[in-house]
Known about the structure:
2 copies of one chain form a homodimer.
Chain A: H1 12-32, H2 46-49, H3 62-73, E1 85-86, H4 95-107, H5 118-134, E2 148-152, H6 155-169, E3 177-182, H7 187-195, E4 200-204, H8 214-226, E5 230-237, H9 249-258, E6 262-266, E7 291-294, H10 296-299, E8 307-311, H11 314-321, H12 331-335, H13 354-389, E9 393-395, E10 403-408, H14 412-424, E11 429-435, E12 438-444, H15 452-466
Parallel strand pairs in A: 1-11, 3-4, 3-5, 5-6, 6-7
Antiparallel strand pairs in A: 2-8, 7-8, 9-10, 10-12, 11-12
Helix pairs in contact in A: 4-13, 5-13, 6-7, 6-11, 13-15, 14-15
Amino acid sequence: xxxxxxxxxxxxxxxxxxxxxxxxxxxxxxxxxxxxxxxxxxxxxxxxxxxxxxxxxxxxxxxxxxxxxxxxxxxxxxxxxxxxxxxxxxxxxxxxxxxxxxxxxxxxxxxxxxxxxxxxxxxxxxxxxxxxxxxxxxxxxxxxxxxxxxxxxxxxxxxxxxxxxxxxxxxxxxxxxxxxxxxxxxxxxxxxxxxxxxxxxxxxxxxxxxxxxxxxxxxxxxxxxxxxxxxxxxxxxxxxxxxxxxxxxxxxxxxxxxxxxxxxxxxxxxxxxxxxxxxxxxxxxxxxxxxxxxxxxxxxxxxxxxxxxxxxxxxxxxxxxxxxxxxxxxxxxxxxxxxxxxxxxxxxxxxxxxxxxxxxxxxxxxxxxxxxxxxxxxxxxxxxxxxxxxxxxxxxxxxxxxxxxxxxxxxxxxxxxxxxxxxxxxxxxxxxxxxxxxxxxxxxxxxxxxxxxxxxxxxxxxxxxxx
Amino acid sequence: xxxxxxxxxxxxxxxxxxxxxxxxxxxxxxxxxxxxxxxxxxxxxxxxxxxxxxxxxxxxxxxxxxxxxxxxxxxxxxxxxxxxxxxxxxxxxxxxxxxxxxxxxxxxxxxxxxxxxxxxxxxxxxxxxxxxxxxxxxxxxxxxxxxxxxxxxxxxxxxxxxxxxxxxxxxxxxxxxxxxxxxxxxxxxxxxxxxxxxxxxxxxxxxxxxxxxxxxxxxxxxxxxxxxxxxxxxxxxxxxxxxxxxxxxxxxxxxxxxxxxxxxxxxxxxxxxxxxxxxxxxxxxxxxxxxxxxxxxxxxxxxxxxxxxxxxxxxxxxxxxxxxxxxxxxxxxxxxxxxxxxxxxxxxxxxxxxxxxxxxxxxxxxxxxxxxxxxxxxxxxxxxxxxxxxxxxxxxxxxxxxxxxxxxxxxxxxxxxxxxxxxxxxxxxxxxxxxxxxxxxxxxxxxxxxxxxxxxxxxxxxxxxxx
Lengths: 467, 467
């Protein structure tokens, strides 16, 4: 490598040139992603072995970097943006979201305080408030009321934050504090509880639809009180990760109120569906919640990371998280007229994530998002119907949103063989999982570009293997 | 607004067209940013007032979104990427970093597990290991040894994570646990301690250079033990936020070892400087640390967010944070041959942040980064020298890196007048702060494009106002 003279910054002319090239690269990628085998076939260590042990001493031409992106990185990519993506939940991106992320990276503002870029805070307030109306959330959760929404990195962060605030609102030894969630709750509840130092997590039994049994919650709380423990928080799921089960939010909320528990609602995946009024009965009782999270970075065409966290009352949140050293003091903050989002989560720094969400909401419009969400849910319903009428298959849980959960009548081996055959196809990817000690196949329909054609093709394969 | 027919996704042709436009927009922005008044003049609520109260029902043309970016958002932007940025610490972006973020947004992979995109994990391992050599960190911190590095969102997250692991390694009531840091430690130590549920944070007195007095730490630990408390963790700063003071890492590490305290080192800003061997004496004793954090998103030309978190032993970290539900079980994870970065921090989901850091390290090369860091430090030294020889000004702390901290001899009012005049100029921005009850001006030199010309111009203004 020959030595390059300083300065070493890429010129803006080169940035334009390579910028166009990268835009074309992404456009080509998105156009061709359904022709690629979805699951990377890389072996452990294979990508690493293609990279040198030490960083280059001298600058390398950007062409070489882009070449290695194709030759070294791409073989190690599993294609979440493939329309054959039926695994986990979607982690959708979309063109307007990509462009929003790009603008945010170019501006490079750090929105820790209102004053460090007022637009970063105010656009975030506005989109958070827009979403209150779009999803039919309680009006008091707007930043113009006592509550408010903030963008966090993930639902795990939002849930952890809620549990920390709940812990601080209570008193005594955290080792005696208890968090309740259903047996089907996401692992982030247990992780967040452990990180926040709770002594106990009580996983409450579920009913036949995998929703929390409210009377079991009531019993567990009473047992814990009798045992000298301190019930502090309960997490309801609107759409569990296992099967998109919906906990009885209102009944849980009433129990939480009667025992002064913090009630956090995890709608990480299904929250997006509430943009369609016909799904809102699933969130009945939200006005009894203290906090709530949903992830536009799952199903709302906004690339990771973008998790909304709402609180009904921002007071306890800010009381818990606000610490103001001298170098962060400023007139606007001290006036009390502005929001400093630094005080709404663990990190201090924050990038301008609201921009991509604003780009998406404007570019799709509420109707555009509704259209695609309804299409995904209809596709899931049609797949569920086909599964139900198939002699060798059975649904293991209802399909309120976009997830179809089923098994083969012949048992675990046949069920796993089904999942393996789908995943070995290269053009579709599902997640095999376990519930009640038995295997099942999770087919999550919701990737940005998934259409009836992709679901029909998947069904063709399922039928073929199931016989 | 007329109704648009579905589908509502932006076509890839439009993505190309608007993508080029956004690339040009950013190139023009970066070329012209030093002509813009750095500090937004927006009043509280001004940006918000220009936005509608509700999201649009119908899709809007992307031209309208980009027009509003200029007309509504830009007046609310404070320009962190201006070469006249001398405030806080830098939050640098650079062309290769922007392009790395763009590719990551386009790929939209979610690297929670190795198996969900092996390259996302392995490129991250590789850049983390590269940085161990580049910064002269202990060899055992590589992922190929017992330790390892992971990208987190911010140093606040890294520090919080370290404090949670330390809490779990200890036992008993967290209300009796104590965290130690200097009086000059970053607010994230206090915030992280509070979030992790520690009962006590002890701010240890500093010496005349604002570095922690190791004997005062020793005394505080002994006093706390005598009072029945439980000393659990100590945080050393290599470059405090107030004045870039450097705590005696080795002495603190020895005290930590003798009392079995977890020793976390916060080099969020100054860590980047260690790419130049001549600064490494400031981190002498790192082999006695249990964890360490530095932020490439400050001074290493990599846009927010990108904070490296290293542990000397990844065992306790993973033991604390690993929870594996059925839908995340997979062969690669169970083989133990791969890293699942989900278990290295609070969030589960993660985007491919290593890509931009890899782009930066390759595009600049180690020599390129060294060159610019040395230039920034030399500029700071030259400004410090001018301050020292000026009859009306005095330095209040040494300048080991890129921060120049000084005051006016006439007192707080004159010092604030100096900061105000600089900030009112429109083309330079500094942070006024307070130390030992007296005001001072923080001039942080390290923005990607800051050159001698910008510093000379700043000095011209300082001289003019100081007289």
